[in-house]
Amino acid sequence: MKIAICVKQVPDSWAEKKMVNGLLDRESVDAVLNDLDEYAIEEALRIVEPLNEGKESPEHTITLISMGPDRASEAIRKGLSMGADDAVLVTDAALSGSDAIATSKVLSEVIKSGGFDLVFCGTESTDARMSVVPAMLAERLGWAQLTFAGSVKVDAAAKKVEIARMTESGVENMSASFPCVISVIEKINEPRYPSMAAKKKTIESKSLADISLTANEVGSTGAWTVVEDAQARPPRDKGVKIEDSGDAGTKLADYLAEKRLV
Ligand SMILES: Cc1cc2nc3c(=O)[nH]c(=O)nc-3n(C[C@H](O)[C@H](O)[C@H](O)COP(=O)(O)OP(=O)(O)OC[C@H]3O[C@@H](n4cnc5c(N)ncnc54)[C@H](O)[C@@H]3O)c2cc1C
User: Fold this and answer.
1) From ligand 1's centre to the CA of 134, what distance in Å?
2) Model confidence at 176, in pLDDT bands (50, 70, 90)?
């Protein structure tokens, strides 16, 4: 079984984020592996490790796939040191400003040529939070999609996957045959700390030409959405402090009523 995991490098959640010419400034801020993608890597490792146990060379493999700037290899290395086998990074100056439509096109081209059975994703990135790429991938590949999985069960021999999808109205049990795109929710598991040596593991770098795409299909040129204007979020106001001289309860209730919170 060949599993691919789409992983994105994003600005550190604590980093001060700013837009430059309608694009998020990704260069001057600390960058990390997207949180949700760590859960996807952990889930895939928990599926293949028992199946590979006792085998000289792993029969079931995990490949990380990312689209991003060169430095995205730092985030990929973290995933490799968690236990993934190898990786592909699509990096090209023309990708800057790519929207979700272009991102899904780039990733699907790599997936198509990789002979994968399953593709895992996080449910969302922590920078744009669009939560659309997994569904777009499934559409482009013509594969089934099992998204927002709170649990995943894989029967490699029968080439079948079952998930429990967490929704506001409860749990939906769903299943599909290989090949399939799966997105996992936060807290589906407890990601392990990176412990393996990853320096020797291969990160294959691909350009747009390597995946037979052209610059006008991606980046700001090919984007279907354009950021016309962006303003910094107003600083948080200090908030209201209620001194308790025996009437704090009333003051709090008045404040909540005034804000129509009760
Ligand atoms: C502030 C901001 C606003 C944006 N607004 C828009 C917009 O309105 N419309 C639009 O089309 N684009 C927008 N983008 C661009 C969009 O973020 C990128 O195209 C992005 O790569 C895909 O969207 P996402 O990060 O929201 O992905 P989601 O759909 O939230 O990501 C879900 C999963 O897809 C996978 N994934 C996502 N991106 C990558 C990647 N680059 N490499 C590998 N795996 C990946 C990961 O597994 C991730 O967990 C915006 C970006 C920013 C920073």
Assistant:
1) 10
2) very high
Q: How far apart are CA 229 and CA 44, in angstroms?
A: 40
Domain 2-222 belongs in CATH node 3.40.50.620: yes
The answer to whether 80 and 87 have CB atoms below 8 angstroms apart is yes
CB 7 within 8 A of CB 121: no
Q: Are the C-beta atoms of 29 and 11 separated by less than 8 Å?
A: yes
Tokens of 203: 């990160």
> Per-residue pLDDT tens for 196-232?
778 789 999 999 999 999 999 999 999 998 888 888 8
Q: What separation in Å is there between the alpha carbon of 99 and the centre of ligand 1? A: 7
pLDDT tens digits for 108-129?
Answer: 999 999 999 999 999 999 999 9
Is the minimum distance from the CB of 9 to ligand 1 under 6 angstroms?
no
Overall size of the chain counted in residues: 262
Q: Which of 144, 141, 177 is nearest to 159 (CA)?
A: 177
CA angle 215, 30, 98 (to 5 degrees): 20
E strand or H helix at 177, and its extent? strand 170-177
